[in-house]
Amino acid sequence: MSIYDPVKNLSGVGTKRMEALKQLGIETIMDLLTFYPFRYEDLRVRDIEDIEDREKVVLKGLAVSDGVVSYFGRTKSRLKFRLNVDQAIIPVTFFNQPYLKKQVQANHELTVFGTWDLKRQSLTGIKILKAEESDSQEAVYRSNKQIKQNTIFKLIKQAWDKYQDQIPQLIPYDLTQKYQLDDFPTAIRKIHFPNQDDDLARARTSLIFTEFFTYQLSLQKIRRDHSQTNPGSTLHYSLPDLKNFFKSLDFDLTGAQKRVVNEICKDLLQPKQMFRLLQGDVGSGKTVVAAAAIYAVFTGRKQAAIMAPTEILADQHFASFQDLFAGTDLKQALLKSSTPAKEREKILLDLAQGEIDLLVGTHALIQDDVIFKDLALVVIDEQHRFGVKQRGKLREKGQDPDVLAMTATPIPRTLSITAYGEMDTSIIDQMPAGRLPVKTIWLRNQNSSQMVNFIKRELDQGRQAYVVSPLIEESDNLDLQNALDLFDLYNQVFTGYQVGLLHGQMKKEERDQVMAAFKDNQVQILVSTTVIEVGVDVNNASVMVIHDADRFGLAQLHQLRGRVGRGTSQAYCILIADPKGENGVKRMQVMTESNDGFFLSEKDLAMRGPGDVLGSIQSGLPQFKIGDLVEDAPILEKARIESIHYLNQDPDLSQNIDLKTYLLYNQPNSKGLLD
């Protein structure tokens, strides 16, 4: 008998019930016992004077008479009786439970759970409680149409009675003492079958810690096991040459850039494969940091590759590296799907012979005929825009190359250590000197005409503007400004200026043409959907207008805002929105008050939740059963630290076989780079 036995081992679980349980994520006894209640019904007897209208309560008294059942329709019924509660006669009605009539007898004491009607001073019954059920708290579980709440509870009770001795102790004794936690079996008992004297808060904290601890332990073990099977190699780069590279730049690195470069260089010197996630706001200088890593690899006589999600972004990287590596001997090439066949053939030949030190490109880099002589570093820009297989194919071009993943989307710490817990994280949390913060203004739709003259003034000075809409075409369901309507409107209002249109349904060639025209200032106003969220730098753009801004999350608004302010002149972000709820108003206010992407990402997490913040692209977040990444962030941090310490002491988990077995049955669904 094992806690990992299938639920079919319980009586009353046939094929249909197994399927119903499976829909709730329950397949084993352990799944069932860790199917936690989301709330409790208070079954303590109450005084009538203290009860509010529509409140669920327990009343205790003597039945004044036998119950009377009346039927209406084929299946519907009503059971009525009166209950003497402290000399007050309370009418009680049960619907569609005629079988309860047997329990209702005159002068017999009854304890009834139901919904109170304050005006009528009556009770709509839910159930008649047994003596042992009253004065307690009853767990309430998620259910579905195929299986009732009461059935789930009965199955959990059956599983507990039969398997309680098989429940493992997952948390080491010293940690339960350190953090004053219940052991796992005790916490399981309390959460499902609480007594009056039980500390439910302690039980819940214990289960949250257990869930976070085991998850983080899995991530750390994945990482450790990977480093053993994919050892990587030490890169012997030239420190003097790297220092000379920095001296050749016409600007100084920020303190944050220097710190991150040191972190990466330290990784390169280690005899294990680097997996580092580089986070930094738009414009924080991630490209320079990547260039430093690439140049270090070059001085070690190895090759590097950088993969970008779009051709226009690859073009931008190529141009940036040309500037940064000017005056050095580093040879780079650009490979895209649009690269002419003859040029492509030459690049592939030079690459295989080691004549190319850096290959910049798009998905074209992962084609089978792209062969490196000695690839030592893979840089993946906006890594969440690539699938697991795509990222893996690029890594396979070398012998366990070091991996540097970059994202301009600030990720809250709790999400970072959960979704990418098996990776090291570097953060550039400082903007380059001289960069003016974007001024953000929030206007309601009725006041949006105020911005017209302002935009014209910016355009007259030779600047450019983005205009963003959440929709491409008009929707019957959403009253939002759509991109096509906005394109027409801005064409009418801004005569004498060229207005462009960009959206995801356009062909790639069309999008690239429009973006190139905007970059060359042939187009002064670019009306777009969020496809420009990750896009090419246009230093001349000084205005970002976002219509229906309340439809976006803070992180996305910040990402869009980061498309302007890339030059030396003051830039502006104008939010047009009439938020309906308090949350929407708060988001607009926060945007006008802060330019700190990491601060905004934490606010976004608190307001919208983890799934919305990371989005479907980065849906590698686990579905925790009881832990909440926002509410329980301090517990997550403690669990992470303790998981690292524990694995250092017991790398093979040989001292806790129960824990090792549990981890085998509960592998995390992580979408980090170690896939």
Give the topology, please.
Elements: H1 15-23, H2 29-33, E1 39-42, E2 56-63, E3 68-72, E4 76-85, E5 88-95, E6 109-117, E7 122-128, E8 137-140, H3 149-163, H4 173-178, H5 184-192, H6 200-229, H7 239-248, H8 255-269, E9 275-280, H9 286-299, E10 303-307, H10 311-324, E11 332-335, H11 341-352, E12 358-361, E13 375-381, H12 388-395, E14 402-407, H13 413-419, E15 424-428, E16 439-443, H14 450-460, E17 464-468, H15 483-493, E18 499-502, H16 508-519, E19 525-528, E20 541-547, H17 554-561, E21 572-576, H18 582-593, H19 597-608, H20 610-614, H21 633-649, H22 657-665
Parallel strand pairs: 5-7, 9-14, 9-15, 10-12, 10-13, 11-12, 13-14, 16-21, 17-19, 17-20, 18-19, 20-21
Antiparallel strand pairs: 1-8, 2-4, 2-6, 3-4, 4-5, 6-7
Helix pairs in contact: 5-6, 6-21, 7-9, 8-9, 17-19, 18-19
Keywords:
six-stranded parallel sheet; OB fold (Dihydrolipoamide Acetyltransferase, E2P); alpha/beta; 37% helix; 675 residues; Rossmann fold
